[in-house]
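Task: fold both queries, return tokens.
Query 1:
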Amino acid sequence: MVKSIYLITGANSDIGFYLIQYLISQNNYVIGTCRKSTHELQSIPTTNFELISNIDIENTEDLSILQKVLIGKGDIQYNVIHCIGNFWHHKSIISTDHLEARDLIISHYLTTFNLLKLIVPIMKKNKGGRILTFSCNSVIYNYPEMAAFTSAKAAVETLVKCCANENSQYNIVINTLALSTIKTEKVVNSKKEKYHDDYLTLEELKDIIIHTISGPKFINGNIIKVLKHSKYFYHESYYDRNEIIE
């Protein structure tokens, strides 16, 4: 018997793909969405996995397709994990192109807005559900050379808190994890090697995600700070830790 039903957006992202494999191994049913399918996604056994490819959460027509699929599943209380958002680099405002800033806002904030607008009515109809999104601790610290990315994540945090306040009466739980650096291939390739051991692994992050999304329902509308102790973080300057693109 299936334990729970999950919707993972950004199924081909590092976090999304890792989560899908774990959730299926624990006998959950997973629906994954992505703009473009990959060989890795196609190789996942379909017994407890349904891939909806060619879905762009930025596109209202694609959202209608996804909405029909989710409604067609019946009265299900979904667990939704939103794993969409463009990668970023440390850049000053002056060095950040207008289109790059726009893309960060769209991929991080607008996709979250579109997903909530899609899934909340379904959750209200089905008498509840849970949603988890991701932010970054850069919103707390207001780091330099991260303005475009951090602004997008700050918008996500405000959106989540507002939406949780509007819909907690319907048994809908929405939280955000404010992440420290995650040890993915892209991050490792863009950061200095001596810091790599201080980053959260996907295995560690997976445990945090599952713990958070299955936690008590009164933990709602929160920005939950995730931090792994770093022997460097509080002892070296921001500029020592990061390479700035100019």
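Query 1 returned. Query 2:
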Amino acid sequence: MKDVVRYVRDHQVDNLLARIGAASTTRAQMLEDMRHRLQVLGIEVTIDPVNGTLKLPAGGLFLAGQADPTPRGRETIRKLGAVLAATLPCYGVLQASSGPARECPPVDLYSTLSSAYVEGHTDVVPIAASDSRFHDNWDLSAARAIETYKLLRAAEPSLQELRNREGDALLGVSGYAETRPATQDPDRLQATVRDLDRRIEVRLTMAANETAVREAVEALNQQLAEVSDLVP
């Protein structure tokens, strides 16, 4: 049995397994890359590598009951668009045209980006005004995501050309109403908490790079076949 353990160590089988499951590592690297680029532009964001999200600065993005971003929110979203356009093509994303040259960090593409969702959120107060164009907070959160998407696309037209490895559009939108609070504060009716809940997040989902994974699996199977000769 010691011979088997020694073989696994010497032939770095554990490294092969780690590369097969590299999706979370690649996504975390992408989020950190985006966070750093936004920081340079004066925008402080919060990233969650486990869930694959980037949260725009809390507070001041939207007024209550409104889907159009505030002037401050519009400027933040434009800067986000510039960062997305510069970052996403570095992570296995296809473009309709080659586009300008980019400075990309070294990436182990055992997994590639499958989608980038612009997620809209609302505070806990329900839509009540009879003259509102929104039926409820679900409608409002989706509208916020759509308006953000439109701003991103207007600021950086190349974003609408981005495709994943299957050829599907990379950017999408989703709305969660008030179902995903921004804080753990139980009193979500506080003005400050409500402002934090009215927000936009970007969620990244990954897909395995099938060619790279297949090559790693074949190499692993070959090594395991050799290991079997060491087992009595």
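Both queries returned. Flag for query 2: The two ends are 9 Å apart (CA to CA).
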